[in-house]
Amino acid sequence: MIDFTRYIGQTAGGAMNRLLDDSHSKHLGIKMDTPFTRFLILLMAAAALVAVYRLGWGLRASTHMNDYWPWGLWISFDVLGGVAMAAGAFLIAGAVYILNWKKYQCIARASILNAFFGYLLAAISITLDVGRSFVIWHPLIMWQVNSVMFIVALHLVLYLSTLATESSPMVFEKLGWQRALHIVGRGMIGAVMFGVALSLLHQSSLGANYLIVPGKLSPLWYSKLLPYLFLVSSIMMGLSMVSFETILTGKVFNHKTPLDVLEGLSRGVVLVGSLYCAMKIGLLAAGPGFGALIDGGFLGVMWLLEMAVGVVIPVALLAKRSNRRNLDTIFVASILVILGVLLNRLDVGIFAISDYANRTGADYFPSAMELILTSGMIAFAILGFKVCAKYLNLFPETDH
């Protein structure tokens, strides 16, 4: 027993030493103890306190939500926006492992890890947003196949598990667990195919949630094609998010930025963005009409703003081939797409029901606690990504 215990301790200690060995990151210039890292930790600590308060005192005490605004910032931004930003994982993983497009392999790990954090934060947000957070596990054993909310919950759990599986090779490599690495490697294509199917369903099912409120949602956004709009816009967002993080990490972590990869992603943004723009304009013309943009007042401005920022301007920027080879232009266009799709999710989740809610005398603006929790979760994702970049082989091309 003593020998076995000593063996386990030595094995665990060796694995931990390998995990914390930062020899891989020395050439990346990653420093953990920085003012920015401390700021992220401070935000995370504040968010943790808010989460404890919310669990102890409830939603009414910690948020400004009410019966007419049951979903606020945590759902519209953290869940709808976070899941859309994670769409890059199934696109890049599918391109690398299913279509065998090897040139995108250098960004696959970072894309999948980013999606893992995005889905993890979405899961935390849903847990805190549900009235009875301590029974969030019930959908796993109490199935209701006729509920779109059940479908969303099931997709979230399954895809989060799939992303963890797809990210595990980095950890196994660092720990030296060759057998585990071999097992995961053999099943990776199957996991990716399963993940692609799940992500396609999940992105669209989030839009399907709003099909049940035709009388509450503004006609500028309500459509029976809302699930498809969510799916197409998430693809545009996913491609832009991958470009954004590739350029940003290249600058911050001092690793190679593959221009040919970014050009291909930018070309995808132009194609998907053009399709999304045609869908939005076509639905507007066939539905409330262009006059609704003027009659809608503030909502009309929000519709135009999300389209201009998230679709028209970035597509116009990237339509020119020379711009698709310019890092600064790609970076700006990517930021615009991300902001535009996030604004779309806020429009659908909050602003588009404002007319209905205001007629009942209700109003909503996120509380300080809602803003703190969201900021803390974003900080957690950034810090988690930084830790992985330091200790794991997140950018394989830097080894060449």
TrEMBL record:
Domain of life where this protein originates: Bacteria
Pfam families: NrfD
Keyword Flavoprotein: no
Spans through the membrane: 39-59, 71-99, 106-128, 140-162, 183-205, 225-248, 269-294, 300-319, 331-353, 365-385
Main location group: membrane
Annotated membrane topology: Multi-pass membrane protein
Subcellular location: Cell membrane
InterPro entries attached to this UniProt entry: FDH_cytochrome_b556_subunit, NrfD-like
Keyword annotations from UniProtKB, A to Z: Cell membrane, Membrane, Transmembrane, Transmembrane helix
Similarity remark: Belongs to the NrfD family.
Protein name: Ni/Fe-hydrogenase cytochrome b subunit
Source organism (scientific name): Geotalea uraniireducens
